[in-house]
């Protein structure tokens, strides 16, 4: 390989190719002429670099077995040596810590032979799993090894996108004896009768021989005769000794020839069992007939042979002779001759002359990536020639880089894009000779035209690392020492001499040290990638105006999520005064993804605007957050009572001076008797106004009242009690004032006492008079006395249950008492439907204060409208009462069978004529089998006049009947169908209806709302509601519009749509407005309630 004459900048001289690994195979009875030592790859190369590209062959696996980083293997199988007939085991171990399932392991011999299908008597595959170490162990055991088991083996393990492979060698030595040498002509084989590959060369028996020594010529042995005369147990020994690979085909022919032939009447002498001739030679077939007059025909593979220059026929007496001239491989076949009805057959074997190598291979030097051609010439055109690399046959194929070109006698082995792995000894072998040569592939000096450059990229932008080298070779990209894996976001581009690593939408984890290493060169191109992201403040959890409310005395821990790369530095401030990190009451705490403002014990003065500033090398961010400290309101001023009545009063008060930073929601009012110490709550719903009217007090008893102010935080302390007050009723005005008599100087008046006098009693009357047309009245000097002889207008007191229709069943008693008022004793008149009442059927009893209507046994004729009229003098009062007497209804009029299909019957009927003086509430349907006529209820309380009866027994005959039903019950009789319904055995085929898939998607909706709740301080309280929605909504609880997150005082449950918030041992400060928020993809819904925590007096 030529050396470079000049070294330029960024030029790396190609390292010398490593010495080839010698073959470990040995020929029995011989020793290698020269000892060869194994040489490992140069230690200067890092362990992660390979020595260039090569096909997935054994040589490449051997060279890289110790230089590649194992992806999955913990322990690789190692090569070994075994004697014939002994056992050997190969072990591979795979660690399963990062694997979700068992990896797939395959064992191969050579390049492609999968040993899984060969498991049996001589090969066993096992696998075990150790749970404590989480290691899979895979074993391949070879039992009673044979010589042909030697060679290169490979173990592959795969798991999803991960792959690992390892090659190892097995050497098999004979225990005693030597192996007979094999002449090149023993490779002659025939794979079957009449097949395309008949006469092909098989050198599988010669693959383990680097060079074949000239053997002394031995006399030719007729293997056919040996097989004919040998025992069946010796067939394999003979085939192995003489290199026969198509033993099965030869045995088939031998079997046909061994058939006991009957004595022929047509042939005196038949053909020999087999004939053998060299290619191009002449063969003679002779038969002798018993009767020379018989006609003879010759056949080849069943087709008659006609005379020609190739086939010549002769007759000599009783002999019939056929000559075949210029025999070729196509003449290798079965022949037979017929005479009359008889025939005899034979086999012709054509031997091809050995092919000699006329022009030897020459040693060649090349660079990586170049096209290499190894050329030789043989003695015959289009001869069968086999190529070998280090003693192993080269088999070209669509996926192979090796191509074999044949031009007459010239044979060329072409290697496209040679690599260092192609450095080896190549040999060509024919039936009459062989030739070998060495190929050395080196590396060209590599120049770096464009190196990688360091990059600083914003988050989400594209990263593009680009370099250019002088050679069009592949390479590997690593990040922080680990191989880069391609994905949808990360692409590795190789176009000619340019290599790119493109990362779309850069992420933080993409930051690191990237290195590109060209394959087979000890050179690296490094670059650093720095991903930055401007700082961001995430305020999604706050209100629209970024306000945070905290209760005075409680601890505030305001955690604000932040982002940025590198992590930004956060500074909190208030009124241009920075808030430092430390142990103060107000302090800041910094974390990688958030910044927290902590106020241990919130005070009223802590309310205000707080600023947070973020800064890193990518930029800055600012935000303002308003913190509002709320507290209980101050107690109101003592209320004042402005007006009193018999059991009520009107009180007023002023709002408290300080509302606690939260608007006053309302007031609670309590009262107590002056001599008592027990206060009683007067309202459970907040009073929104500053006035209130307490009621239901005892007249003449002194009372006191007080006020509580309520805001979103809770209830204030009570106000001072009001001044004591006593409810007293003022008498109502006198009634029925009339002038009785008039004289020249006096007027006599009469009136009735007031309807309501009150607890203070009636002391007397005050009389006032005025002149006609004047608006000012003068008080009389005399006190009057009331007169009681004026008439009282009548008034009927209808009981509440008689203000609606009075319903009774037939046979029940009717007894109605209607009280009335009026003086003197009024006159009473009863009428029914405008006519006088028949007193023989209905009894009427009257007294001074009430009237009674009595019916001992009600009938339907007693139903109607009853009118009562009460009259006192010229005053008249009227009232009406509706009485309805009901009975059981009659049966339906007609019941019909509309249709019968399958196991179903459709019925219809008409409502009854007599509904029993009440609305028909339903129907009851019964069925009966014609054989037993036992009735069974099918449907009850059915409202329609048609129905479908299902699940009837096929083959039965049914009758049906229907009862009517009202509020009194079922009709006494039922109407039955006139005809019966026969359920035929051959019913109609019912086709199930096709329903479209129902869309269960639904926005969140509360099916049971939250309700305002009162809790006792120190006892757990729960808030419950139920919600439905699809997809299942996410539930968030909030107190005073602040989300409840990780607070040990609260526990949240959600089961089957029922959402529960448990408040552990609440205090008055836990009172307020609680909100439950449900969110899914289709919408958001909220519901609120108020919680009040009461403190029980000790």
TrEMBL record:
One of its GO terms (cellular component) is myosin filament. The lineage of its organism: Eukaryota, Metazoa, Chordata, Craniata, Vertebrata. It holds the Pfam family THB. GO terms for biological process: cell adhesion; sarcomere organization. The gene is MYBPC1. Keywords: Actin-binding, Cell adhesion, Immunoglobulin domain, Muscle protein, Phosphoprotein, Repeat, Thick filament. This is Myosin binding protein C1. Residues 1-10 have a biased composition (Basic and acidic residues). InterPro entries: FN3_dom (IPR003961), FN3_sf (IPR036116), Ig-like_dom (IPR007110), Ig-like_dom_sf (IPR036179), Ig-like_fold (IPR013783), Ig_I-set (IPR013098), Ig_sub (IPR003599), Ig_sub2 (IPR003598). Belongs to the immunoglobulin superfamily. MyBP family. It comes from Cebus imitator (Panamanian white-faced capuchin).
């Amino acid at each position: 390989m030529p050396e470079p004459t000049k070294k330029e900048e960024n030029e790396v001289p190609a390292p010398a190719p490593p010495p080839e690994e010698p073959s470990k195979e040995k020929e029995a009875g011989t020793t290698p002429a020269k000892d060869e030592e194994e040489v490992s790859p140069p230690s200067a190369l890092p362990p992660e670099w390979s020595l260039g590209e090569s096909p997935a062959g054994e040589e490449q696996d051997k060279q890289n077995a110790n230089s590649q980083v194992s992806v999955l293997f913990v322990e690789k199988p190692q090569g070994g040596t075994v004697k014939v007939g002994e056992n050997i085991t190969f072990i591979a171990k795979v660690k399963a810590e990062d694997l979700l399932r068992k990896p797939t392991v395959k064992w191969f011999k050579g390049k492609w032979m999968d040993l899984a299908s060969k498991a049996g008597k001589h090969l066993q595959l096992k696998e075990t799993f150790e749970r404590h170490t989480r290691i899979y162990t895979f074993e391949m055991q070879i039992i009673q090894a044979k010589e042909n088991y030697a060679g290169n083996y490979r173990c592959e393990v795969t798991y999803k996108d991960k792959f690992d492979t390892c090659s190892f060698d097995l050497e098999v030595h004979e225990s005693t004896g030597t192996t007979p040498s094999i002449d090149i002509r023993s490779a002659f084989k025939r794979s079957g009768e009449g097949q395309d590959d008949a006469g092909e060369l098989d050198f599988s028996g010669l693959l383990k021989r680097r060079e074949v020594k000239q053997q002394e010529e031995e006399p030719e042995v007729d293997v056919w005769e040996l097989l004919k005369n040998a025992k069946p147990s010796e067939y394999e020994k003979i085939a192995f000794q003489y290199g026969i690979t198509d033993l099965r085909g030869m045995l088939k022919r031998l079997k046909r020839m061994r058939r006991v032939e009957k004595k022929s009447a047509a042939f005196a002498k038949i053909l020999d069992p087999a004939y053998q001739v060299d290619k191009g030679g002449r063969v003679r077939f002779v038969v002798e007939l018993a009767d020379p007059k018989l006609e003879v025909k010759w056949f080849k593979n069943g087709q008659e042979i006609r005379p020609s220059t190739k086939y010549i026929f002769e007759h000599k007496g009783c002999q019939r002779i056929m000559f075949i001239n210029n025999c070729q491989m196509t003449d290798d076949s079965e022949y037979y001759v017929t005479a009359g009805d008889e025939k005899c057959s034979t086999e012709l074997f054509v031997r091809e002359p050995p092919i000699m190598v006329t022009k030897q291979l020459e040693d060649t030097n090349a660079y990586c990536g170049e096209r290499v051609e190894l050329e030789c010439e043989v003695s015959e055109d289009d001869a069968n020639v086999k190529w070998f690399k280090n003693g192993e046959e080269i088999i070209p194929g669509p996926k192979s880089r090796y191509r074999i070109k044949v031009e007459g006698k010239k044979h060329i082995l072409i290697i496209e894009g040679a690599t260092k792995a192609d450095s080896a000894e190549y040999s060509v072998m024919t039936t009459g000779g062989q030739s070998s040569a060495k190929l050395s592939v080196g590396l060209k000096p590599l120049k770096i035209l464009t190196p990688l450059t360091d990059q600083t990229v914003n988050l989400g932008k594209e990263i593009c690392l680009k370099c250019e080298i002088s050679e069009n070779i592949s390479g590997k990209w690593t990040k922080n020492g680990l191989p880069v894996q391609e994905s949808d976001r990360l692409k590795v581009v190789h176009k000619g001499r340019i290599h790119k690593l493109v990362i779309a939408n850069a992420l933080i984890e993409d930051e690191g040290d990237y290195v590109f290493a060209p394959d087979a060169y000890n050179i690296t191109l490094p670059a650093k990638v720095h991903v930055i992201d401007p700082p961001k403040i995430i305020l999604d959890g706050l209100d629209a105006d970024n306000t945070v409310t905290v209760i005075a005395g409680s601890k505030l821990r305001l955690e604000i999520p932040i982002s940025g790369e590198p992590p930004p530095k956060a500074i909190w401030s208030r009124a241009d005064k920075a808030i430092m990190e430390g142990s103060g009451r107000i302090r800041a705490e910094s974390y990688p993804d958030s910044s927290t403002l902590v106020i241990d014990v919130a005070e009223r003065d802590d309310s205000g605007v707080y600023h947070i500033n973020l800064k890193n090398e990518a930029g800055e961010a600012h935000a303002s957050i308003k913190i509002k400290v709320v507290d209980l309101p101050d107690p109101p001023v003592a209320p004042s009572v402005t007006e009193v009545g018999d059991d009520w009063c009107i009180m007023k008060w002023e709002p408290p001076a300080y509302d606690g930073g939260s608007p006053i929601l309302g007031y609670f009012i309590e009262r107590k008797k002056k001599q008592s110490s027990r206060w009683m709550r007067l309202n459970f719903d907040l009073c929104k106004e500053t006035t209130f009217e307490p009621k239901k007090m005892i007249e003449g008893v002194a009372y006191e009242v007080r006020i509580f102010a309520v805001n979103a935080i809770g209830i204030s302390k009570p106000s001072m009690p009001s001044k004591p007050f006593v409810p007293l009723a003022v008498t109502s005005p006198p009634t029925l004032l009339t002038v009785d008599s008039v004289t020249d100087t006096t007027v006599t008046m009469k009136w009735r006492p007031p309807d309501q006098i009150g607890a203070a009693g009636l002391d007397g009357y005050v009389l006032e008079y005025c002149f006609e047309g004047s608006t000012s009245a003068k008080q009389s000097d005399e006190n009057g006395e009331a007169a009681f002889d004026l008439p009282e207008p009548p008034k009927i007191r209808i009981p509440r249950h008689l203000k609606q229709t009075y319903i009774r069943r037939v046979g029940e008693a009717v007894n109605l008492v209607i009280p009335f008022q009026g003086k003197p004793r009024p006159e009473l008149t009863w009428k029914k439907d405008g006519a006088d009442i028949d007193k023989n059927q209905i009894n009427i009893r009257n007294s001074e204060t009430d009237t009674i209507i009595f019916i001992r046994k009600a009938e339907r004729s007693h139903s109607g409208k009853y009118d009562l009229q009460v009259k006192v003098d010229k005053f008249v009062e009227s009232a009406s009462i509706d009485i309805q007497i009901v009975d059981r209804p009659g049966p339906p009029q007609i019941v019909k069978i509309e249709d019968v299909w399958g196991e179903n019957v459709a019925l219809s009927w008409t409502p009854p004529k007599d509904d029993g003086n009440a609305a028909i509430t339903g129907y009851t349907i019964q069925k009966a089998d014609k054989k037993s006529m036992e009735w069974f209820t099918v449907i009850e309380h059915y409202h329609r006049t048609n129905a479908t009866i299902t699940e009837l027994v096929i083959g039965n005959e049914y009758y049906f009947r229907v009862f009517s039903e009202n509020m009194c019950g079922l009709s006494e009789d039922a109407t039955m169908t006139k005809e019966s319904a026969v359920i035929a055995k051959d019913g109609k085929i019912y086709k199930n209806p096709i329903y479209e898939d129902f869309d269960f998607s639904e926005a969140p909706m509360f099916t049971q709302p939250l309700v305002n709740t009162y809790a006792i301080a120190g006892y757990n309280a729960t808030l419950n509601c139920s919600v439905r929605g699809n997809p299942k909504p996410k539930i968030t609880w909030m107190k005073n519009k602040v989300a409840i997150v990780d607070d040990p005082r609260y526990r949240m449950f959600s089961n089957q749509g029922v959402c529960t918030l448990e408040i552990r041992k609440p205090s008055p400060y836990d009172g307020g407005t609680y909100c439950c928020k449900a969110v899914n993809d289709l919408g958001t819904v909220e519901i609120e309630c108020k919680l009040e925590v009461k403190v029980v007096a000790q």
